[in-house]
Fold this sequence. Notes:
By secondary structure, the chain is mainly alpha-helical. It has a single domain (56-256), classed as MetI-like fold (Orthogonal Bundle), CATH 1.10.3720.10. Helices cover 77% and strands 0% of the residues. The chain is built from eleven helices and no strands. It has helices spanning 6-32, 50-57, 59-92, 98-110, 113-127, 133-157, 161-169, 174-203, 206-211, 218-226, 232-256. Helix 4 crosses helix 6 (133-157).
Amino acid sequence: MARFAWWQKSLIGVAFGALVFLYVPIVVLIVFSFNDSPVTSFPLSGFTWMWYEKVMANAALLRSLANSLMVACAATALTVVVGVPAALALDQRDFPGKRLFQSTILLPLSLPGIVTGIAMLNFYKQIGVPQSLGAVIIGHATALLGIVVSQVMARLAKLNRNLGEASADLGATPVETFFRVTLPNIRSAVIGSALLSFTLSFDEIPVTYFLTGREITLPIYIYSTLRRGITPEINAIGSLIVAASLVLILASVGLLREKK
């Protein structure tokens, strides 16, 4: 068995401590969602499903959840529809301003969400687009476009170029080559990046806060509710979001992993 130096053990300890600091609050959130008491404090008074039942009976919360699902699905679809052709163009074509175009697509990933939200709000006001869920969908798709483009380009870079040339030599049109050769080879990257985009869109707050109108999404509903204090009902919906996000992230990671 390999022996670790003292500094290596220290680094392992720091990493473990950081993981504990990050994930223990999530465990506490889930534990209190089953606590048979409206007071979020230890010791626990008992086990109950009551707070999950209250979540299912909360019309405003369910409406905001439906809005979040609609926004995330529409933004993800728009991101894939625009992102995949953009990745193909960047990978297969040379054109003036290519590097600028690529940097522009990836720029929202490096900007804070609040900057993106303010910039989009100012732009939408100039062109007459009202604050609404439609504006939120466009904002999310713009902010997350870089995820699909970067992941699909990474997979295209590993694709054998001879496959496309062989397809063309056999008489296939570019469209047929895409659907029969290119798409099957990049399918996992497309699906994985779409799942990741869905998760990030569902949880997005800064961009949504600036672009939404009267109809709000679930993260905005939770944020406004937390101003009055943490309740077990919020713990319950938070636990459900954690579970759903974990499933989607694991699925996206599995699909984006290089096939052995």
